[in-house]
Each structure stands twice: as C-alpha cells, then as structure tokens.
Write a sequence for this structure.
C-alpha cells in the first residue's frame, strides 16, 4: 500500500512525526487537524515543523462534511485526533467525551461509507489498563487491583492484596483486562473498541496501538496536560520546581516518538485479516523522579529541586509499563532509541523553545474540584 494516507490529528506531536516517517517511505500524506489553541498556541496556524509535502485540511473530526472531504481518495486512516490528559478529563468531561468519543464515531461512520479505505489504525493508550500487572511473593499474578482512598490519604502509595502483602509491578501485556480509572481512559477505550467493532463488521482491517508515555521533540510545552516530560521541561525552562505527585517512585514506560512513528508504519504495512491490538512502548521502565532528574541534568537545571507533593491526583495509577513481545513478534517492532539518546535529543531541542508555564494553574483547577488528596 503506497497511496494517500490520512492522519487525523496529523499536525500534532505524534501525527507530524508519523507523517515524516510515511513520507520517507513513499506515501502521500494528508492531515486533518483543528489546530486547537491548547496544543498549537493562540495563533493556531500551520506548525513550521509540519512537512510542506503534507496536505493539511483544517477542521474538526466531529464535522461529517469536513471528515468526508479529508477522506476523499484515501486508502488508509490513522485516527489520532483526541483530547489528551488524565487530569483535565476529570473536570472537562463533556469536551473529552465529545471530541474523543463522538469524533471517533463520525470518522468511523465516514469510513464505513467509503469504498476506498482499506486499513485503519487507531491510537489507543496504556491508560485503559488502569494499574498494570502485578505479582506477589508466591508468584501469583494480580490484575484489577486498586488503592483505596483511605490508603492514599495516609500517603501509602504501593499496592497490596489481602493475604499477599505488597505487590511487585511487572510488564503489562495486551491480555490484561482494562480497568478504566479516568474519563480520558474511558474515551480511549471507546475509541479502540469502536474501531475494532466497525472494522470487524465492514471487513476493514483495524489495528489499535496502545501507546505508553510518548516523549520527544514537538510536544506542546505550554499545554499543562501533555506528557509528563514536557510538563517537567516547561517548569525547568521557567526556573520553577517541577511538581511530582505521590513520592515520584511510580514507574512508567517512556518511549521515543521516533519509535512510535516506526511502529505506526509497521502496523500499516503488515498483512492482516482480523483486528489486532498492540502495546507500543520501550519495553523498559523508569520512575518519574528518575526521569525528572535526568532531564534536569541535561538542561543544566540540576539546582532546581523538585516539589514532591505527596498528594494523589484522581485518575492516576501507581505503576504501568509495557510488555511489547507481541509487537516484536507480529509487527517486527524493535525500539531503536535508548532513553538516554531520547532525553538528550529532547534537551537539545528544548534549548530553542519558549514554554508558557501553566502548571500551577492546572493544579489549582484540580484542587478547586477536590481532585487531589
């Protein structure tokens, strides 16, 4: 397949990197994006980093006419358009549900009516897992566990199970049952499942890629609900102490946007007859505090101490990192960018960026609504 590919949300962080990857491999790329000010700034113009070869259709995925226009002549669709952010989703419930759920329904309805689209790839999220997979001292697996509110109020962050004691986090495979802890997670699960249901019904191959913590150049530094590395960078660049929820020892899988773009292209190019779901991560884990300290050193901001809040944010989970063995085996996916290389590239890019620090404002919104304890 080397025809025209549509990326919804294609002017954004991941979408633009994917566009670069596809152009390098001979595809024609069209992007549908509303250039929302929260991501693209108040000017909301075509970003300079978006390759000139990308045809940009400006519009909303909730508008059927715009979506149909963007789909004309398209053979494959990457549906990436979404509101992003666990915290904000807990108080902008209607907007997240409208953009993510309704927007996906409009896109899929247009695809179902099209006779040209031959493949769909949906951006899902590790957030649908809630807590990752755990194991106890006896080697038994635990999923669907959670931390009671009273425990969180005491500042006891790790998970335990009756009769098993404290649990140890292990890589989370695609077979782990979803456990939806935020409106954002619910909307991403709906995006994924709607895509798979429509694909199976209309015999259109669909792949859902569950992205873990994606980082890299072009992240929206002035958006306080973007990835945690970009949020930390915004604080450091403005000489402010980055705020870390809980104790900072929660583990995540940080994956370079270059590796994510590679995985997305591989998903387009594999032969498949049925819908599939894959984790896309680095296959490694780091604590949030470790990531912050490394970024601060790279930016020569090591003297700015983090603010460890010892508070919990509604919708957050303790540990979750990826088992990527299925993507390795079936997509041929192998991460190429080490964490050290990725953070070094990010730090170099950050030197020329201006970030408006809105993190304090975002935290105030959460506190005002009682969404931190």
């Amino acid at each position: 397949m080397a025809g025209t590919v549509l990326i919804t949300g294609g002017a954004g962080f991941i979408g633009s990197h994917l566009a670069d990857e596809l152009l390098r491999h001979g595809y024609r790329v069209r992007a549908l994006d509303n250039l929302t000010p929260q991501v693209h700034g108040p000017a909301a113009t075509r970003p300079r980093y978006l390759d000139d070869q990308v045809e940009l259709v400006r519009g909303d995925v909730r508008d059927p006419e715009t979506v149909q226009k963007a789909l004309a002549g398209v053979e494959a669709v990457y549906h990436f358009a979404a509101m992003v952010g666990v915290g904000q989703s807990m108080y902008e419930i209607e907007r997240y549900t409208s953009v993510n759920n309704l927007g996906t329904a409009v896109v899929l309805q247009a695809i179902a009516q099209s006779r040209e689209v031959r493949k769909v790839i949906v951006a899902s999220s590790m957030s649908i897992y809630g807590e990752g997979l755990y194991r106890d001292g006896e080697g038994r697996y635990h999923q669907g566990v959670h931390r009671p509110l009273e425990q969180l109020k005491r500042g006891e962050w790790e998970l335990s199970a009756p009769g098993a004691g404290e649990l140890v986090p292990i890589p989370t495979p695609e077979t782990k049952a979803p456990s939806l802890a935020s409106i954002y997670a619910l909307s991403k699960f709906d995006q994924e499942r709607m895509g798979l249901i429509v694909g199976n019904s209309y015999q259109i191959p669909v792949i859902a890629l569950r992205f873990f913590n994606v980082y890299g150049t072009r992240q929206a530094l002035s958006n306080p609900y973007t990835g945690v590395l970009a949020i930390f960078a915004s604080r450091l660049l403005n000489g402010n102490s980055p705020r870390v929820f809980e104790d900072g020892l929660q583990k995540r899988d940080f994956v370079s946007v270059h590796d994510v773009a590679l995985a997305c292209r591989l998903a387009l190019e594999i032969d498949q007859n049925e819908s599939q779901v894959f984790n896309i991560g680095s296959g490694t884990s780091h604590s949030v505090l470790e990531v912050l300290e490394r970024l601060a050193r790279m930016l020569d901001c090591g003297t700015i101490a983090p603010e460890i809040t010892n508070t919990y944010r509604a919708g957050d989970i303790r540990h979750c990192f990826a088992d990527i063995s299925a993507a390795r085996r079936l997509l041929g996916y192998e991460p190429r960018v080490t964490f050290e290389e990725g953070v070094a590239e990010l730090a170099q890019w950050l030197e020329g960026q201006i970030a408006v620090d809105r993190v304090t404002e975002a935290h105030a919104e959460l506190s005002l609504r009682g969404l931190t304890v």
Q: What stands out?
A: The mean pLDDT is 94. The first helix runs from residue 13 to 24. DSSP finds 13 helices and 18 strands in the chain.
